[in-house]
Amino acid sequence: MKKLILIMGLLISITAAFQIPSAYAHTNNSEGYSLIEVKGDLLEYELKVDLTELGESINKEMDEQQLFDTEVVQDYIHSHIDLFADSVKLEGTIETSDVETINGRLFAVMDLTYKLDHKPEKLVLNYHMFLDDTDPSHANYATVKLDGEQQEAVLSYESRELEIGEVSFIKNITQFFILGLEHIFTGYDHILFIISLLFGAKTVKNIFSLVTAFTIAHSVTLVLATLDIVQLPGRFVESAIALSIIYVALINIFNPDSKHQPWLAFAFGLIHGFGFAGILAEMRLDGSHLASSLLSFNIGIEMGQLIIVSAAFPILLWLKKLTFKPVKWVIPGTSVAIFAFGLVWFIERAF
Prior knowledge:
Blueprint lengths: L1 H18 L11 E9 L2 E9 H7 L12 H11 E5 L2 E2 L2 E11 L2 E11 L7 E5 L11 E8 L2 E7 L5 E3 L5 H17 L2 H12 L4 H23 L7 H21 L7 H15 L1 H6 L3 H35 L8 H21 L1
Parallel strand pairs: 1-8
Antiparallel strand pairs: 1-2, 2-6, 3-4, 3-7, 5-6, 7-10, 8-9
Helix pairs in contact: 1-11, 4-10, 5-7, 5-10, 5-11, 6-8, 6-10, 7-8, 7-11
């Protein structure tokens, strides 16, 4: 009878999940990437922004089959991005445009060129895309290269300006620490996986071993992917992350008394690490900033995990100790919902 109720709940949750508007797991906020480099008498700017968000900003429906109205897009970019070379404002032109899939989302990719009268000593980027019109939570991960020097920054509503050479070491590691925190807290697939692991943890020692195994594993693949030593297709990684959620949720549903083992957390942690590496790989960090940026980003992720575990695990232990019968269905019922979300994400990402 219990299994029949669980199966019915499973079907209801799957149906409900399919009614929810499509959600991409890493973030509900739009993202962008900027790579700016001076080459001779040209400044080249590769700009990648969320395709749907761009369409909303210019009031045009956009998909991967549509060609960009480059004039409209270019006007929007010029009114929302200011580039200064030695205090002189530059005007750019979109040379090529395309659509690219990054972490399961469609991005508009535009290559802009800015003509230079001379090789500048200083570059300043003021970035305002989406922030004041459609998405105040938008973040752009920017990399600027000038005369052998490279500067990275996360451009957001509160921090819209990047001046090469201006960002201090402390500010740089702080930005990447915050980026790691944001990445785990808006990474709903990672959060659901961690919570599913907690469902199968029986003691504090057990949860410590699970979290440690998961942390070691995803840290290894985060480094390997960021250093471009090992790369896996984004669609495969995102689909595998969804499958990890489905697998652990099924264990929690049909064998709720099982004790999750560290090898399980380690195995799936390897896959999740490739998911964490997506943003850093797009930023193309150079050697001088790679170690500090990577370390502070990973510490941000671990701190976020620790906060989630510290908040959720005591509640789960309390629920397991209650004798009130309906409470016994909280964890299996929640696992059914987690399974449903994992299944929807897998279908979206794999097909």
